[in-house]
Amino acid sequence: MKVYLIGAGLGNSQYLTQQAKDLLNEANILIYDALVDESILNLVPTKCRQIYVGKRGGEPSTPQTEINRLLVHYAQKNQTVIRLKNGDPFIFGRAREEIEALKKANCKVEIIPGLSSAITAPLLAGIPLTDKLLSRSFSVITAHEPDQLDWNALARIDTIVILMGGRNLNLIVKKLTREGKPLSCPIAIIKSAGTEEQKVWVSTLETIVETTQNMKLSPSIMVIGEVVNLRMVSNLN
Description:
Elements (H helix, E strand, L loop, with lengths): L1 E6 L10 H7 L4 E4 L5 H4 L7 E4 L11 H12 L5 E5 L9 H10 L3 E5 L4 H8 L13 E5 L8 H4 L4 E5 L5 H10 L7 E6 L7 E6 L3 H4 L8 E5 L6 H4 L3
Parallel strand pairs: 1-4, 1-5, 2-3, 2-4, 6-7
Antiparallel strand pairs: 7-10, 8-9, 8-10
Helix pairs in contact: 3-4
GO molecular function: uroporphyrin-III C-methyltransferase activity
Keywords: Methyltransferase, Porphyrin biosynthesis, S-adenosyl-L-methionine, Transferase
InterPro entries: 4pyrrol_Mease, 4pyrrol_Methylase_sf, 4pyrrole_Mease_sub1, 4pyrrole_Mease_sub2, CobA/CysG_C, Siro_Cobalamin_biosynth, Uropor_MeTrfase_CS
């Protein structure tokens, strides 16, 4: 049998591809991440074994080596294994480690694309990532390890999309402004995009830390750049 690495999009069935839904209906084993809700879990057959291996910042999580072991173990039992990953498997999804482990064990693997939150969250908040006048390029980064990033280069990009940056917001602001981003630069933080709990904060680099003080910002996507001001055109809440 084959292991399918499937992108779960924003975590609910509304943002799954049709191909992903069809494969979930055939699953014997489902190994899934955090932020996958009941609407997706309900798509698998009742006899499907569901194994949670989610990783959340600051909380106990399943080691990657154990996830790799589970994938190989069930694939070798001739099961249809679904590895359900948030967003798209190839955008900060640590898919490489899992693919390498499977191929080393001579297990077949197929990648099924998903909607990345880096693209869909700004869209759902009414923020375009490109604009012929305000943004001719954008960069997508993860701020999980901010000291590893080239903030000087990032500060010169029109639009920056930041994943996994909630806990480092204050540091992100300091690094960007130190490298030349003006304090007046707009920033939006989109929490729980695509769900009923979606919340959007719009501010500037100067005031965003104060605006979101004492707020839990995870899971969220940040958009930094003049395009944030275009959100007002859409009249979205």
